Amino acid sequence: MSVVREIAAPSNQVATFDLLRVPALGRFLRWRYSRIAFQVPLLFVGMLMVAHAFWGPQLAPKNLAALLTWVHFRGLVVVVILLVGNLFCMACPFMLPRELARRWFHPRWNWPPALRNKWPAIVLFVFVLFVYELCDLWSDPWWTGVLIVGYFVAATVVDALFTGASFCKHVCPVGQFNFLGSALSPLEVAIRDKDVCTHCKTHDCIQGRRDHSGETDMSTLKRLPVIQRGCELELFQPNKVGNLDCTFCLDCVYACPHDNVGIMTRLPAAELTISGTRSGVGIFERRFDLTMLVTVFTFGAVLNAFAMISPVYALEQWAAGVTGLRVEWPILSGIFIVVLVLEPAIILGAAAAVTRWGVATREPILGVVNRFARSLIPIGFGIWLAHYGFHFFTGFLTVIPVAQNAVIQAIGQPLLGEPLWQLSGFSAAIVFPMQVGFMGLGLLGSWIVAAVIARDMSPTRTWSAFAPWAVVHALLFASAYWIMMQPMDMRGTFLGA
Ligand code: SF4
Ligand code: SF4
Predict the structure, then answer these.
(1) pTM for this entry
(2) What is the number of domains present in the chain?
(3) Would you say the CB of residue 472 lies under 6 angstroms from ligand 2?
(4) Ligand 1, CB within 6 Å, residue ranges
(5) b/e 138-159 (16+ beta carbons within 10 angstroms → b)
(6) Which residue range forms the structural domain that includes residue 337?
(7) Pairing between β-strand 4-8 and β-strand 187-191 as defined by DSSP bridges
(8) Nearest Cα residue to 433 out of 491, 488, 485
(9) What is the whole-number distance in angstroms between the Cα of residue 281 and the centre of ligand 1?
(10) Is residue 149 included in any domain, yes or no?
(11) Residue pLDDT, tens place only, 415-435
(12) Within a domain: residue 73?
């Protein structure tokens, strides 16, 4: 069977590549336990990291928890999202204890309606960024271990109490990061043939699959026990758009009785140009919580990179001198408020005001900001990629001597050989052009998305709608470029020690 097939589109036929049609790989992925096969090794690695965090050396470059979390995990996540898709959520080890817990604790509560949005995750996202800077988590294996254990506990408790995938959809900051980043991925879980869904009566991809054998009465069918759950993220396949909120868990693949769900190729970032209602998400451009999530994601990328260079220390010292403060948290809070709240409010508000004037519309400023917010995602992801990619590509081999050293400390024998501490990764001179390339691609993606949004907003004054946002994206690129030009802390590796 060909792995390239034609699927029906509203106006044309689109040739797509379906990963689930690849002979051996597709069969493995369609196997109901394939997700667990990914999760178990990662859970094992997670347990090793926790053990090393609490009982291993407390020097971060020699500790598996600090090194793998802050250098390898973060770097691999963004690289894999760019090249493939949201595979981390697919293989997420935090979900394994949760699945086990659900064998004994059947959640009874629905997630509170007031929190059925991204606000809990936004608060946690900012909290983690803040604690990371305040406590220098990258240099603290013990607290990194606490963070990992806390994550396991939080995921298990939330999903033991609340139905569905409440933790993934509303709480997990890593998941939100992956959801936004995977808008740039080349793969998405999607239907193969719209006609099949049109004639589908049971909608098992979201309702869950029941034992259909011989039963045709829908009211009776709905009372039968579910033998394969449907999408816990509330994404109904025929109306699903893109990767937002999709954990790549493949439950919809296993549940669909018509084998009509695949993992399809698509144009990266194209989902950001689509307006209208999305299943499980609603209307992106009317959700202020999504605007805030994108804002924190994008400006947080700049802030997180800025915190790695020496000017931030000069800024903190200057603020301490002016205010007389002798503790860091109020100063750091001030920097966070300026970069994540005031700066976006001024910049995005100004861009929206100019757009309103340019296209002569009475749409509220907040409405215009909401409309263009998703155009920030490509440049935001480009900055994260440049930053995390720097640490990963300059230090990816450092895991070898740290693992060798850990084995010696654990069993007293150099089973993996003597530690090769000289191993590191590519030189910064090689990585810098890659960083610029990632950010350049992000800038281009943001411009293209903004241009499409501008055209939809005003076909006759597209340039007037587009120009202010193009300037915003260029400003973000320029500030990130300046940051990447500075000498960076080599966090988690010996190179800068
Ligand atoms: S994806 Fe499958 S279960 Fe869902 S509507 Fe389409 S055919 Fe039905
Ligand atoms: S079940 Fe939902 S979250 Fe899982 S892969 Fe399908 S659409 Fe994505």
Answers:
(1) 0.91
(2) 1
(3) no
(4) 191, 196-197, 200, 203-205, 237-238, 256, 258, 260-261
(5) bbbbebbbbbbeebbeebbebb
(6) 271-497
(7) unpaired
(8) 485
(9) 18
(10) no
(11) 999 999 999 899 999 999 999
(12) no
